[in-house]
Design brief:
Its EC number is 2.7.7.7. Pfam families: 5_3_exonuc (PF01367), 5_3_exonuc_N (PF02739), DNA_pol_A (PF00476), DNA_pol_A_exo1 (PF01612). It contains 38 helices and 22 strands. By secondary structure, the chain is α/β, with parallel strands linked by helices.
Length: about 1000
Amino acid sequence: MNKGDHLFLVDGSGFIFRAFHAIPALNRKSDGLPVNAVSGFCNMLWKLLRDARNTDVGVTPTHLAVIFDYSSTTFRKEIYPLYKANRSAPPEDLIPQFGLIRHATRAFNLPCIETEGFEADDIIATYARQAEAVGADVTIVSSDKDLMQLVSANVHMYDAMKDKQISIPDVIEKWGVPPEKMIDLQALTGDSTDNVPGIPGIGPKTAAQLLEEFGDLETLLERAGEIKQVKRRENIVANAELARVSRQLVELRTDVPLEMKLEDLVLEPQDGPKLIGFLKAMEFTTLTRRVAETCDCDAGAIEAAVVPVEWGDAAHGPDLDLRSVSADQPTMAQSAPGATTSNTASGKAPADLARQRAESLAGKPIDRSRYVTIRDIETLELWLAAARETGVVAFDTESTSLDPMQADLVGVSFAIQDNVLSPGSTDIRAAYVPLGHRSGVGDLLGGGHAEGQIPMAAALAAMKGLLEDPAVLKVVQNLKYDYLIMKRYGIVLQSFDDTMLMSYVLDAGKGNHGMDTLSQRWLGHTPIAFKDVTGSGKSSVTFDLVDIDRATTYAAEDADVTLRLWLVLKPRLAAEGLTRIYERLERPLVPVLAHMEERGITVDRQILSRLSGELAQKAAAAEDEVYALAGERFNIGSPKQLGDILFGRMGLPGGSKTKTGQWSTSAQVLEDLAAEGAPLPRKIVDWRQLTKLKSTYTDALPGYVHPQTKRVHTGYSLASTTTGRLSSSEPNLQNIPVRTAEGRKIRTAFISTPGHKLLSADYSQIELRVLAHVADIPQLRQAFADGIDIHAMTASEMFGVPVEGMPSEVRRRAKAINFGIIYGISAFGLANQLSIERSEAGDYIKKYFERFPGIKDYMEATKAFAREKGYVETIFGRRAHYPEIKSSNPSMRAFNERAAINAPIQGSAADIIRRAMIQIEPALAASGLAERCRMLLQVHDELIFEVEDEAVDAAMPVIVDVMENAAMPAVSMRVPLKVDARAANNWDEAH
């Protein structure tokens, strides 16, 4: 080797480490041999060699060697027997890959160097100093801080994962000391990864300050008495010998006996057939193709090499730290599209992997300056190709409205892990593709098309292949919105994950699952607020009028954050045993709900107009009666005026004031007063119901009719309740009252189109059936099995009244108790509901538990489980968290206990109908009914379909069968589920 030559020294053990943690479980198809680390290692080495031979890069090696640890037994253990004693043995999946990786190195035509009794770092140090002595330049391909002591004017390090060179200034910037003092700094701080003791309590900043003041370690130890801080002085004096031992451990040897001399490390040309033979033996198809193209070889004509597999010597390999992963060597393993994250690739329990993922990404800086604006089709194609290579891409849309049925697409953003050529890289690349931005000037509609955008049709045509490719996983936050937007533009997303739903499955009850909240919780990062980009109030603009550069920063960040959240949340599903909930109850429901929202339902404007007039008349009449009872006219809608009349002038009992000092006139307060016989509160309740029906439904629903489809498209939320129940909004169709004549009339306005019927399929008493199942109540189970009126049976059990000829009042009381028990009703609540004394209601509840002791046992067991775990589970394993169940506040604690009792019942019922919804469309398709029967709405325990008149008789049994057997095969219900189905021209008649 001569002056001017350039030696690359590759930390092979570090490459193995990163490859093993970066690539998920991968087995050779022919025999199941684990090869994930081999695959990652080969890809990293191929990239390094390709770049090394690219003269445009600016650094071209003349010599190159790959250095490995021979074993974990080195001279350092003679100095300090506990050195690296905290490390675990390599996992079984990695053991056979040690030898394969050495074969891979030789197949790349590279020296494969290791020396017994020494670590790879010592070999690297020896070669580096020898090359430096003859005037050659050295690049150490590693980011390991242990090697930074070698950095000099002629010796640099290169972090291949981050494509970053590490020179003297970089060492100083990161550690506060130059490379020659890194040994002393590490001796002071120690290293928990290698079990180097150091001086307890001394961190890098303190160590750097001490070395700046005293010069070097030995001087510091000799003059420790001069340190002003008492505790620090005493600590250093007491642990001086530990520091000296630590220095011996961290100082790299530069006198390792080497079999291969510097001149033997010349970088030879690639032997294409040799390398291809090895890659074919490993069955690495993609890399085989790349190598064949670069080396101009016919891969088909080359036979796979015979590569022996060594299973036995676990000690003969790099001494990997398999207990923990530091922040500068994170585990960013990607999962196969749609697959459950595996722990076999890392050798860790899933909980360890999940924890390490979270720790790795928490607080990891997000550099918005790196975001890219894609303004031409060529750049877009490059990004799409990169996304295909990684197999996982975060995706987000920007539009003009929160209503996906009416929003215009403005742009899309992508984020991918930067690991196509650098497996294991923790960096994320993100970009924004503007498509529909307007300039804000130039026409009457608010501006002409802004410059620097790809034509919408061309961009969508380019993206369609990727977004519909089932082999590429699309990661989205609140997927249903983006799914609907893209479907309206002719693209049906395939193969996806939703980070919002992942969070919901994992942490329902612990807070909301919006992206900003999750980012702050898991990443320690506050994303740019939407209003900061579009403005707020009267000055706000739609996103298409936002400047493209500002839009890029906002939109690309959304995709970036989404991908990071996926990396954190995905392994938690496996670690916490919730993958099946996500994959069977949540993710498959997204396209089902999207299709329902897209279909919408027809409403009759004339019926609504007529009902609005009727409600106005009834409300006016009720208003007159209120004035008559009050003895004066006042603003009924004013809580203050109403409170003053009820509790001030009239002096009604039970009044309480809010924090503002006003009397409370909530619905519950008025209901309580009405139950005690006060006529004015009852009439006010009636007036409120009438005016709410008018304003919320008969007046508002016509405004929700879509201008093109002429139908109403409600939106469903999957992640807004703790128990798993869906909610609807814009408009909310789940709160239309059905117990009043006026409420039922509103349902008559929801109609079928000509030639069709609305078919309603409603679970009968599903929550009571679930209760009978989970609490295993023999009487209830038998009654449901025999088809007996459950409320009459309960009344007969409690009050000794025969079912035949039972008074309706007796049955009504039993019904109130049956449903009240599910919601943890108190004696006070039951007394109000039945208009009886609290003592009588308490006697009813007591007697109920005496007749059905299993229910009481279930309730107590559920509360105990919730107090221990912090959550409860449905029969399918969905979790609902109640973190306040141990609250010192009695009312808060009682509320959480009631909710915890109800959640497994209501949540199980919700899970059953979710399963039914997921199964119904395939069942209809299998019966040839997919185009003739379409699911439109879900309202609590009811599904509403629009069916062709001639297909009603065929569709109804299919729907009923799916719904009644929806729990199978996951759960075999002890109680049969029953569905009542009926078809008619409007929703009310069908229900």
